[in-house]
Design a protein that fits this description.
homodimer, alpha/beta, Rossmann fold, 2 domains, 4-stranded parallel sheet, elongated
Chain lengths: 442, 442
């Protein structure tokens, strides 16, 4: 069970001694971590709007400018300076409004100084709540902050808010951000397939779209949603979970083009050769030491051209897919907001080292409720596609996968438009005056 | 002035001799040509719905299966077998529902046989109206069919319906298809730029998106709409009209990243080196003899990486951009429909060898009316971006360009959704029984 902390106890105390001068309520810290999504700001909106309803318990919400780096460098944004309209606008604004970062804190043994610095900054700004919005790596950071703050005598309630387009966090039914990227890929794959179908007689026969997903094929699987019983589309999905078999793949393309006149290939950036090398390996690595990918589509296009002599076109969706707030899934937006809201409510109830989760109750109609997971069970665990979500031939999704995914792309949640363009908000980003002396070098 | 043909005259005759048995009204032929768009089916909808209202003058509308090839091979689709719901659904369905093709008829001198065959097929099926929905090449075909049919003693009223995502037809203010691809590029560029801005502190500094446009930079220019006075975005546009200057370009990227922390590059597939070679030249050619492009983004990404050492990401929108009916411009959909409707109305009024055009009346509010252009002035003329639409430095759009383009992306026209997916229609495509003997080899 998650442990109850001082927040709940102090509530009892203050209500019992109402006549005495109250201590200023603790402030909260919120930060966005890792690759941003179409709905991470909806979670921020959930955190801030909910905190604003409880000003007796949560003072101000300070956001880290550019994620956790903002905490380390004491570069905090005072969200109380943002209007209610701006905060409400975050719900329909893609990207990370406060800035995010790819900066993984090292282990406690390797760099205790960083964790201690975080707690010093939190202490200096009377921060008692730490809301960290990210994936598996940030869940780990969140857990460590909670543990070390206790050791250092300045206990902080650390709550992780789930976010990843990759849908790879454990325990929670899905990760906010995924439903929207899935909807984008499903819709785009359907649209481009219609396009190719109408041109295939004399022109392009194979359309290839490369999608994100280094290790887990969740996003690629979303391409399978383009095809339904009433709108069948010949689709081949290349998952990172399935070792790439060039001969089998080309045979399938050839077969589909002969049968249907065209086909669409959805290829994950993480697809790899039998020896483990990514099809798209560029040799570059990102800050987390992951290989920087991009280009699997061109490799696939090249082999279809040279081996099958079939005219093809390819697209690489890259950031367009995870930023596509204009076609966000309403279910996803709702869940993203709910996770932010639940994080604050958990904190108010005294929980610590936990993450709100989405617990599915039923598929049709899609019902879910907010659950809770201990961070020790979330940190650094990567959830892969279950084997029974991929068809036996390795090129498609099963009914089980479809039943799981369809509810996540349900509903539209269009942003407001002005002169044809979506009206996304930008924060003022007023800095909180620094209290600590000296500069912290990253 | 466009010449009046038998259609108008026969109207007078029939009304004057109402007691005599009427000749069966002529049928119409409709075909889609070249690369399809998000709204070409809206034009088809305009043609068919309008024709259905005038059954006394237009019998049936037969569509060419896979464009003009359907006429040559006598493979006609009887659109009267499609329900009113299906035809209405074409308005919100991307791609070419009847099939399109890249098949350019040779000149009369080179292949008179093809034109004669068209007229034989039209005669066999009592077709008196030829509606051809395409770009500059098909305007030329349309004109020739009209001319030759007159010579062959079976006069056909040929009306061209404008369509190109490239916006390169003359006389008309804009081409249906362009407004929607422009909206997609403007919205996607804004969204991806928000994404990069939030990550730039520790990760990607430059985002590159490659867009369509072989010779004319209209689509690339739409990337400039992402940035507005209330939402400025550091953007560099690389137009095919401007000779690529690597040194100047890299200096600009460097300057923008230093000033804003990030920047976005919108690169047209048609950008070329000083010696005329496309950045993306693959050496392949399409059926029209045009170089098949794709990959300018990777070339740009490579030089930013190696020369400036700036982390970057790139996307290639390819078919996603022209098929993106989910984010179609309402203005564009309305104009596409209106062009189809006007084509039929022109035919009913006896016009021949003409194309309905969009004549702009005012920018704010955007007002336009249907005009008419003679095909001899449209065929094979390519409208380039005016010089004063591109900023002097060659990297951006002027106010004049913005004033022209903004009205074209205005308004949203969402398709209906079911279970999270847009409900695009497919036709039954019932074939008209063949009447001619023998097979025609393409």
């Amino acid at each position: 069970m998650p442990k109850k902390t001082s927040a709940k106890k102090s509530k009892k105390k203050t209500s019992a001694r109402a006549s005495k001068p109250k201590a200023a309520p603790k402030n909260a810290f919120y930060a966005q971590s890792g690759g941003v999504t179409a709905v991470i700001n909806a979670s921020a909106c959930g955190v801030i709007e909910t905190a604003r309803k409880h000003k007796n318990k949560i003072g101000k919400v300070y956001a880290g400018r550019n994620g956790i780096i903002g905490a380390l460098t004491e570069d905090l944004i005072d969200t109380s300076k943002e209007s209610a309209t701006t905060i409400r606008g975050l719900r329909h604004t893609p990207s990370g409004a406060f800035g995010s970062c790819r900066y993984k804190l090292k282990s406690l043994e390797q760099n205790r100084r960083e964790y201690e610095r975080l707690i010093e900054v939190f202490k200096a700004h009377n921060i008692g709540y730490f809301f960290y919005n990210g994936g598996g790596d940030s869940a780990d950071t969140c857990l460590k902050v909670s543990q070390l703050s206790e050791t250092m005598g300045y206990p902080i309630q650390a709550i992780h808010v789930p976010k990843t387009v990759d849908n790879d966090l454990p325990i929670t039914d899905n990760c906010p951000g995924f439903g929207s990227v899935a909807k984008y890929i499903a819709v785009s794959t359907r649209e481009a397939s219609f396009d190719v179908a109408s041109m295939a007689k004399t022109s392009t026969k194979v359309f290839i779209v490369e999608v994100m997903g280094r290790h887990a094929g969740w996003i690629a699987a979303a391409g399978g949603l383009a095809s339904t019983d009433d709108t069948p589309i010949p689709t081949i999905i290349l998952f990172p979970e399935v070792q790439f078999d060039q001969k089998k793949f080309l045979a399938r393309v050839d077969e589909m083009v002969k049968k249907h006149g065209y086909c669409t290939v959805v290829v994950s950036e993480g697809v790899h050769w039998p020896d483990g090398r990514f099809l798209a390996d560029t040799g570059l690595k990102d800050a987390f030491g992951h290989a920087q990918l991009g280009g699997a589509a061109t490799v696939i296009a090249g082999m279809i051209q040279s081996e099958l002599k079939l005219k093809n076109h390819w697209a690489v969706a890259d950031y367009l897919q995870r930023a596509a707030r204009h076609i966000a899934s309403k279910a996803d937006v709702d869940m993203a907001y709910a996770m932010g809201k639940a994080a604050v409510e958990f904190a108010l109830k005294g929980h610590n080292s936990v993450m709100p989760t989405i617990d599915r109750v039923s598929n049709k109609p899609f019902k879910w409720k907010v659950g809770m997971a201990s961070l020790s069970k979330v940190a650094n665990v990567e959830k892969m596609m279950p084997n029974d979500f991929i068809t036996k031939d390795g090129f498609g999704i099963t009914k089980k996968c479809r039943d799981y995914m369809e509810p996540l792309i349900k509903g539209e949640d269009y942003p407001p438009y002005k002169d044809g363009m979506p009206q996304y908000v930008r924060i003022k980003g007023v800095a909180v005056p620094k209290k600590l002396k000296g500069k912290f070098e990253l």
